[in-house]
Amino acid sequence: MSWIPRVRSSGWWLLAGASSLLFSILLWIIRFLILGQPFTGMHAFRFMVLAVGLSFLFSFLGWLGARKLWLFSNLGTLIGLILMAFYSRNMTGWEDLISFLVFLEAIAAGFILGLVVEGISLAIRLTKK
User: Fold this and answer.
1) Which helix (H) or strand (E) element contains residue 33?
2) What's the CA dihedral at 77, 79, 84, 85 to 10 degrees?
């Protein structure tokens, strides 16, 4: 994990910006291209706010030292985006909402898995001392 920035490094904010941009674009692609919904600035803005909020939250936790939590949370977000795109194909109505709930569940699963891995890592470091 040497490619992940050090604790309290300014590289975290670069990662936050890059992941915000990536997640925003992927959410827009799913909403407006895959689902074929008409483009509205309000929906695009809301998806961008969601992406920026998640990215900066995860990067802030990484900046504080939870590097594994950052990694698993972002993996959960990417998996959630893939699942959202998969579940939202050729569907409308409730299926759109279900695909968004699957996206949120994948984020939560990645976050929880990251917490477990960070906890195990912390326990191992404490037992070595």
Assistant:
1) none
2) 120
